Every structure is written in C-alpha cells, then in structure tokens.
Amino acid sequence: MIAYILRRVFQSALVLLIVGLVAFSMFRFVGDPVENMLGQERTQEDVDRLRDQLGLNDPFPVQYWTFLSRAAQGEFGISYRQGRDVADIIAERLPATLELAAVSGMLALVFGIGLGVFTAIRKDGWVSSTIMSVSLIGVSLPTFLIGILLIWIFSVELDMLPSFGRGDTVDLGGWTTGFLTESGLKALILPAITLGLYQMTLIMRLVRAEMLEVLRQDYIRFARARGLREKSVNFRHALKNTLVPVITVTGLQLGSIIAFAIITETVFQWPGVGLLFINAIQFVDIPVMAAYLMLISVMFVGINLIVDLLYFAIDPRLRVDGGAGGH
Fold first, then answer.
1. Are both 99 and 174 inside the same structural domain?
2. In a domain, 50, yes or no
C-alpha cells in the first residue's frame, strides 16, 4: 500500500513538472508583455530596463527554475497587467470557480448515478427511453451553445434567472460566497447546469452500461435465487460492483469540470479564474497564465491521485497484486 502511494505521488509530481515546462515554454511565443505594458512614447532604454526588471533577459532555464522555486512557495510573481501579486488576484477569483465546480460536480454525480441506475433497472420503460434520448443533447451540444440556449430561455424569454455575473456575495474571512444570498444562488443555477450537463450525461450513460453488464452476471442470478429483495440485489450487490470502473471516469470528469470551467465562465461572465485567464491571454500577462495552468494542473493531478487511491481501496485485486509484487 505504501509503495503504491509513493509511486503514484512520484508520478503526479513528474506530471506537474512536465506540465509546468510545457506551459512555460508556450508562453514565450504568445507575445511580448513589454509591448502592452509600455505606452507609445517608450524608449529603448525603457524597454531594456523593464525587461531586466521582469527577468525576461535571463536564460530560459533560469526563468523556469525561478518560476518553479517561487511557485513551490505559493509565489507567482507580479501581474504584468494589474501590477499586483498574482497569488492575491487568484485568491480573489478562486472561490467563484471552486463553488461553481463543486455545485456542477454534485449535480453531475447525484443525477448521473441516480438516472443511470434508474434507466438500467427500468431499461424497457418509456421513461428510461425518454431520458436516454434527451441525454443525447448533453453529449452532442457544445458547452457554450448550451449556455446560450439556457440564457435565451430562462433569462431573455422567461426572465427568471440572471444571465451574467455572480450576484451578491458574502465575505467569510477572505472567502467570498454566493451561497448565503438569494441573488447569488440564482446566479449560480444556469452556469452550474451548463458546466455539469455534459459530465452528468456521460456518467449516467456509463453507469447504465456498467449496471446492465453487472445485472447479467451469475452472482446476481444467485442472489435473486436466494430470495434476496430486488432492492438489495440492485443497490447492495450490483451498484457496488458497477462503481469500480465508474470511479476512474468520474474522477477525470470532475477534474475536467475545473479545467473547462473557462468556457462557462466566459459565456456567463462568471468572475472566476477561468475568465481571469482569458483576460490574461489578451494582455499577454504571463505570470497569471502560468499560475492558472499550474493551479489547474495541481487540482487535476490531485483529483486523479485521490481517484487512484480510492480505486486501490475498492478493488481488492489491486491490493492482492500490490501485496504480491511487494512480497
């Protein structure tokens, strides 16, 4: 068990180093931030002085090592656009993204697993057929188009929910939340549905397929032959074995919710780190872009590490193989 954890942690750290290297290399080709920071009246002396202050004249390995050493301490430099500490800027925007991702992930998990089990148990019913047909919308349509459709229906036509912004928020010791205000909760509904719809339909279809496969196994027939109640067979035996392969895909989808929240935040002008990243690209704000990608990478790798450990804990075959290999 310990060897398995150490191996996964080492692999996660290696992935973070590679992602940081790729991201930092790409940012060298997105433009020169000095061009956006200095005005029309700049001189060559001003350009040279600013490049020296930003460390842009240093060799690439030196810049990358400086970035990694500072990032390990939670320091990402100064924003070229705002002239503020990048860590402070991200700390202001991060609560909005995390709340949106948490609500979207909860919707995707609850409705995805619930509807997947229902459509597997009642696979021949018209309700299940209708749900499976409607689910094709969530799989087929792109996220930005779903967001636009929801805005048109619930904001423009019905005038029920706000079309942009986060609503009123409450500051809880440095953490801003919209859960405690009516406008904040209303503003969260459409972005959360938009962001979580694809993940929900994918989880639902995966759970249904795995559930149907498990229900055809011999031990399920034996459980029914023993006289166990149908509810016990479906949820205690079938669902438990269904979740083993589902956990891996679900973990990846929850990670992608955070990574791809950038599209939803752009559509709804949600003041999170995704919208911050889009603005940083327009102004070639390299410290903000690098910090965002490293933050997303840490979250994504962390979620996958947790999923691997859960998979190890749930599937006894991995524990047996791990023990045999260690022995």
1. yes
2. yes
Whether residue 173 is found in the same domain as residue 270 = yes
What pLDDT score does 314 carry? 63
Q: Which residue has the tokens 């060559």?
A: 44
Give the domain range for residue 16. 2-72
pLDDT tens digit sequence for 84-106: 888 888 888 889 998 998 899 88
Q: How far is CA 33 from CA 38, 64, 282, 286, 291, in A?
A: 9, 17, 10, 8, 16
Contact 264, 99 (CB under 8 A): no
Write down the H helix ranges in 268-327. Answer: 273-282, 286-314, 316-326
Residues 39 and 183 in one domain: no
322 domain residue, yes or no: no
Q: What is the pTM of this model?
A: 0.79
Q: How confident is the model at residue 321 (pLDDT cuts 50, 70, 90)?
A: low
Query: 254 CB contacts (<8 Å, ≥6 apart)?
Result: 101, 105, 108, 109, 199, 303
- CATH number of the domain at 256, please: 1.10.3720.10
Q: In sequence order, what DSSP letters do the residues of 76-145 get, joined into one string? A: --B-TTT-SBHHHHHHHHHHHHHHHHHHHHHHHHHHHHHHHHHHHHTTTSHHHHHHHHHHHHHHHS-HHH
Q: How far apart are CA 96 and CA 166, in angstroms?
A: 8
Does residue 206 share a domain with residue 167?
yes
Tokens of 78: 């100064």
The total number of structural domains in the chain stands at 2
Measured CA distances, 59 to 28, 47, 70, 230 (Å)? 12, 17, 17, 67
Report helix angle 126-140 to 86-121, nearest 10.
150
